[in-house]
Amino acid sequence: MSANNSFSYEQLFARNAAEPAPLGMPRRGRYDFAVAYPDPETLPLDELVEGLRQALAEEGRDLAIYHHRQGYPPLREYVANKLARDRDIHVSPDDIILGDGSSQPIHMIVETLVDPGDVLLTEDFVYSGTLNTMRRFRADIRGVPCDEQGMLPDALEAAIRQARAEGKRVKFIYTVPTFQNPQGWTMPLERRQAMVELAQRYDVPILEDDCYVDLRYEGSDVPSLYALDGTGRVMYVASFSKIIAPGMRLGYMTAPRELLQRALAAKSGGAVNTFAAFAVHRFATGQLHSHIEVINDVQRRKRDAMLAALEEHFGDGVTWSRPQGGLYIWVRLPEQADLVSIRDRVLETEDVGYVPGTAFAADGVSGRNYMRLCFGYNTPEEIQEGIARLAAACRREGMLAD
Amino acid sequence: MSANNSFSYEQLFARNAAEPAPLGMPRRGRYDFAVAYPDPETLPLDELVEGLRQALAEEGRDLAIYHHRQGYPPLREYVANKLARDRDIHVSPDDIILGDGSSQPIHMIVETLVDPGDVLLTEDFVYSGTLNTMRRFRADIRGVPCDEQGMLPDALEAAIRQARAEGKRVKFIYTVPTFQNPQGWTMPLERRQAMVELAQRYDVPILEDDCYVDLRYEGSDVPSLYALDGTGRVMYVASFSKIIAPGMRLGYMTAPRELLQRALAAKSGGAVNTFAAFAVHRFATGQLHSHIEVINDVQRRKRDAMLAALEEHFGDGVTWSRPQGGLYIWVRLPEQADLVSIRDRVLETEDVGYVPGTAFAADGVSGRNYMRLCFGYNTPEEIQEGIARLAAACRREGMLAD
């Protein structure tokens, strides 16, 4: 029997229920600068399958078992080693929780710490997924102005003091300090030290989202906020999605045990997908390092292609970031340009997708004249074509008038 | 630098923050009747890897892409076909959301519908995972008395009326109507019709958790509550975990679109693990049906082994369920027995694990003289040994005195 849906759920929704999400698949452009896709050609598919086969032969029976709630222990050991080697973070595997991408650990942390009305401080433009989670928990999100080195420390301090003067609780600072999404900059050492100093002085912890740290094309790594702190005031999350494949959905977090245990209790489901964890573990222990070098090589060329195309097709009045790594270029059009209003039309007519800046605005409204362009998915030739079409569309729509 | 953890998160936890969960791995018994493990020997490992290899060869590039938020479309098509064929549920693939096991859809539904203090009606003893999620959202959970056919309709109606008389909102009825976990019974047609009639008369929707429906060893399927209703008052969840492997963590839900869209918005992360979805889809379309027959054959023998062993080793004063399917036997010891207090000792000395009934109690406290025994994991010989040891331990501890 088919449901005739004569019953309405409208009166039953929780006060905090999320706004309805559209069902069905959003249209993607051929020139898809809208999402965070790495290069499909570099996906290590054969290696992942081989890793899985190997792991199943050795441990297959364990697929039957609801694994350790924190996630497949050998992969947590791998993560612990990686954190120590790459980020000077020294924790045991039991201080790590594997999650469904990095978004699940972030959800767990927000759920654990945030009451409605609590203040969260973020970069003025920051990853939309986290903003949405924060909104679902009715946080009072306050964006802090940034320059090309990240949050302005004076502005951050003023924001903390302001919130407290209003009698509000500032629960944490959320930052993507390396190859920031969407703005592209990387906080240098001095800015990180300043942020950590503020966190310590005002007792406001930091949620450090390091999802892009491995995607470095030039320059040198900067120490993690976690390592610079050393007092337990930093909660750290990162992910394999950008360096293996988003479809794997494997991320992780580490934080002081006091926080970790409550976050773990807030985790829905049991262990993160063991099938994927097997494959990632075997692959990572053998080959991740050289794989990262390969993909970064590809990504560097794509970034350069996009920068060159922007230079060629957009003129005065338009500026953009020049990130040393990551997946995005953050483009600023003249003040009065409205990239929100023309987005669907550009997708329809030029087959070009982008994300308007408003999606990343902490205040939910700023950034109509900004767009985030991802160079991860298309080939350099497609990037060139797509940017040309995008510029033509912007010009046609009067976005570039001075 | 290592964290010296001089910072305390205690003052920052949200009012609703979950109680801390223990880190590290709980000890498992050799005779592990404590968790819901299917038989490890029947895991279709080679077939899963082959399915994955095939899918990757055909669609590997798509692993790069954050897939459809509702989950890999071909697998949703498969689920839609299965629901139509097996449960008389006729929905389109776009009416389905794939999740991280069935626990994620349940979490999404609870998050969407439940404000603190809202009443949820459940069987008096029911799946602990869902109870924990309900508690995290501070629901007022009220257990309804059951017999061997499920919730007593008069008691269910009285519970609805009572809650409303108190001025409370009854948000939904949660039921596991087939091979109920832990009690083992299956609601026959008349009881399902009575529950649906109450749902329609009082406008209280039902969350139907059908996770065990495929694990049938004898008897015939009973129509789903969803199919019996037809007015949109039933939200339906089920899972592949019990019929392929828990480590796959793939479940699904369907519900009227009004509810579905809000539940989707409450889903953390993007699409459920595509890697696993690929493998499950290829495997399921080819072989799931015959696989289920194979595993049910194995499970039937294990169930029979456990029933025989209970008969042999436990005497008067002890009763137990005789389920037609599923994974559990629900054992009742004399009233004064306290299976909670001896659980760790029995695990230590006899290497036997079980779950005391209190874990499943809607009221959180009842059921000290009950235990749930899973026959899914151990071999029939191990089951025989384990039950013998368990009975000996119970006798030694004075649990069986009249």
From TrEMBL, chains A, B:
UniProt cofactor(s): pyridoxal 5'-phosphate
Domain Aminotransferase class I/classII large: 38-390
GO molecular function: pyridoxal phosphate binding; transaminase activity
CDD domains: AAT_like
Alphabetic keyword roster: Aminotransferase, Pyridoxal phosphate, Transferase
GO biological process, one term: alpha-amino acid metabolic process
Subunit structure: Homodimer.
Family indicated by similarity: Belongs to the class-I pyridoxal-phosphate-dependent aminotransferase family.
Annotated protein name in UniProt: PLP-dependent aminotransferase family protein
Organism, as annotated: Litorilinea aerophila
Classification of source organism: Bacteria, Bacillati, Chloroflexota, Caldilineae, Caldilineales
